Amino acid sequence: MNKILIRNAMILAVDAAHGTQPFAGDILVDNGLIAAIGPNLIPPDGARIIDGRDRLVMPGLINAHTHSSETFFRGRYEGMPLEIWLLYAYPLLMNDPIGKRLLYLRSLLLAMESLRNGVTTLCDDFFDPPAHDLDRLGTVFRAYEDAGIRANVSSAAMNIHTLDALPFAREVTPAELQNLLDFGPPMTTDAYVDFCKSAFDSLHGRAGRVNFMIAPSAPQRCTPDLMMACMELAVAKRVPFHTHVLETRTQAITGHELHGKSLIAYMKDLGLLRRNTTIAHSVWVSDEDMSLMGDAGVSVAHNAISNQKLGAGIAPVRRLLDLGVTLGLGTDGVSSNDTARIFDVMRVAGLIHAVSGPDYEKWVTADEVLRMATIGGAKTAMLEHVTGSLEVGKSADLVILNLRSYPFMPFNDAAKHLVYSENGSSIEKVMVAGRIVMEEGRLTTVDEAAVFAELAELVPAWLQEHAELERRNSVFVPVMAEIHRRASLAELPLYRYQGDFPSKSV
């Protein structure tokens, strides 16, 4: 692999020595790794020299939680809480799985948009009903391998009937609608573990950067034996146990309805709070929940935008940080966010937590948000030894931005510019594992025009089929609306904290 020397740049390493304070210097990339960082480095023979004057070099951004299965639903939905939105984005009544070519293009499009906007690593919990298929999983791996992005990939696992994973569902769902939801025998734990082991054997580590992770959908959607087997395998393979917990108030009610305790306490009882545990959302958590999470070294993927679009609430990020929980940033799926840009999530995360309380000294800072988007996100993916900061020996996953641009003019503080001003427009180059994958406004790994042309040709017919699926599933809207209504009125035995203080006892 070619050697690259970035000379005379402003370097934002986000490492232990410098944090988010930039310094001047050079970066030498050799064989995909950062070989040296410092002043006046001597270029090896044959090295490509990149002029870093008026340029900021920073770690590639980490998307700690997304769903490639939503990529074709950009700009399609609004004004729905999660439980209703799921009927359309993840229908109960399903058609045949999306065709393999569209499955590939759907994943490729997400990777392309991510790389263009400085995301060098994504964690994709894609949905591919009705069964887990190694060949289809391999199609997603191939898309990420071809795009040149780093990724953790899994297809969400669940084996509890939808109506048994929601409070009030059986009592408010008419019998004729319940009869429509015959999904056949649930997936067994042994079958899913066998699938995961096959994925590790045949796909994990493809191209040195596309990995398999374990993704049980949520504790209310999976049997205890499935969840515990998933954790055992995740620990053995040193990969994330990636799951959704307490995204909505309905899910907060679910834990107490089904188990007599919060879903976090339930996970603690099952031994599911570990260093490997990465929780998407963590909005409706109590102080007790957060203490358990911090003590266990759990990570949270904070989806600041999607939580607002779906009306889920605001995660208590300051309290999570103070209690020792690692935070990363996720876009969630493109349907509940409408972009794959982590820069957008950074800006929202930097702004929205100021409403959490009057103690402005505890508001989330730009430095903290930048760490979430880089090294924090790497930790949620269990890749902090590989990426997330610019350090000798780590993979050369980095972004080069032009400081002679509107978001940085005039220049004051790097972290604040990146969080509050930058939107990706200043990006000149993106590198993953030492390979330049985006340069001068063009992806180097993919023919974007050809991909767009193929999408324009194939996706409209698929979306027409999906529109019919939406119509069929709309019969469940009154049911989900009633569940949502009842959950909003039900009492919770614990304080629900918004930021740094409880909003009320509910």
From TrEMBL:
Gene3D superfamilies to which the protein is assigned, alphabetical: Metal-dependent hydrolases (3.20.20.140), Urease, subunit C, domain 1 (2.30.40.10)
Q: A Pfam family for this UniProt protein? A: Amidohydro_1
Enzyme Commission number: 3.5.4.28, 3.5.4.31
List UniProt keywords, sorted A-Z: Hydrolase
Q: Where is the Amidohydrolase-related domain?
A: 56-437
Return the InterPro entries for the record.
Answer: Amidohydro-rel, Metal-dep_hydrolase_composite, Metal_Hydrolase, MTA/SAH_deaminase
Q: Which GO terms describe its molecular function?
A: 5'-methylthioadenosine deaminase activity; S-adenosylhomocysteine deaminase activity
- State the species of origin: Rhizobium lusitanum
State which residue ranges cross the membrane.
none
Query: Which named protein is this?
Result: 5-methylthioadenosine/S-adenosylhomocysteine deaminase
Q: Which family is annotated?
A: Belongs to the metallo-dependent hydrolases superfamily. ATZ/TRZ family.
EC primary class: hydrolase
